Amino acid sequence: MIAVGLVALALISGLGTRDSGLGREPSLAKEVSSTVIASRPSPQSRVPQSPVASRQSPEPGSDLTIYLVTMGNGTRIWERFGHNAIRIVDATRGTDSVYNWGTFDFAQPHFLQRFMTGNTLYWMQGEDMVRTVDIYRYTNRSVWVQELDLTPAERLAVRDYIDWNARPENRYYRYDYYLDNCSTRVRDVIDRAIGGQLKQAMASHLTNTTYRFHTERLFQFDRAVALGTNIGLGEVADRQLSEWEDSFLPARLMDHVRDVKFRDSNGAVHPLVKAERQVFVATGPPEPRQPPDEMARNLAIGLAVAVLLGVLARGASAGKRAARIGFTTVATIWTALNGILGMLLIVGWAATRHIFMARNENLLQFDVLSLALAVVLPLAIARGRAVRAARTLALVIAAIAFVGFAMQILPWFNQVNGEIIALTLPAHLALAWCVLALTLAPATAPVRRGGAVQPVASRSAA
Question: Whole-model pTM above 0.90?
């Protein structure tokens, strides 16, 4: 489960689609006619030039128009968080191009290794505006464009930076799903063009959101992915976000820039967004505004596991062989799964660059000691061996999980993991009680074998 969540962590935060959803499906643009700009059979759209403008010597950059382009969320995992890009209409070059920083490819050499260790490489790529809109119309994802009210010098700075960034030696970067993704790269390009005023305007304004809030909100249609990701995210994911940080999501960046005013290079103060329109309206469900409340569901699952363990343990103590086998099987699977997840959390924290897996209080619920309990538990229940070790481990694991629950009332621990505790703590407590009940039962407790009742041999406490 957490492995599914870890895969999602590397594929979220505004990726668009594989290879930006553009370079891998050359037939799509032919299937949908564009209603935005008339296209021509070349990599970029031609923009008509004024005969008068061609005879003049305008200020450098005055022939450019810069837009923030935002694409809505899609149905695939890496589309859940939307996408965005910078659009540059260049009247002199006769082009209308869209540049995004969300391009990746599963076929990259060592892609899986890089992804698991937090070293995934993404790159910047340009594409024709007509083809871009056609692709997102075909995949039923909304598209908005916001014209930025920049001076010619600022527009030229954007174009020159993107030209530099598009070079093969400059286009790759190490992707981080929250701190350095397609949306933060777009945000930073705009901020650079206006001398850092975008960050200055947004960084001091706090939102009521966190990284975990947005992740659960946008993954709620993928329940297993949402649960696995929630387990994998540590305390840092629960920090309250400023508008600047909140703009790791394309839709949030689009919302925030609407309210930004800045002083341009000529000294005039005015809104950053000059005009806005929606190029394509998707017909799918709108983006969820709130994360789901999974507390009741998780608590029900945790209690169901606890009750199942209790019923099987009761039957085992009454001498029912099938119940003893059932209890041993369920308890071993539960403890092994918990231990494996705990090991993944430790590796993610200590041995990768996934910084949002650090300081994860879920380690108190998914304890690596559970791996040892998974080994000794069958020996203790079925054969009467390693009984003392099984008791000790079960009690220690339950106690540690309870400490994780008690920490919720302390001000120094801010991780929002109540839903995870609701899922795990009831089963941990029930398992500890069941192990004590079974291993401390009188030595003469009967066991049914083949219909005959036989006394149980004395157990060793080794």
Answer: no
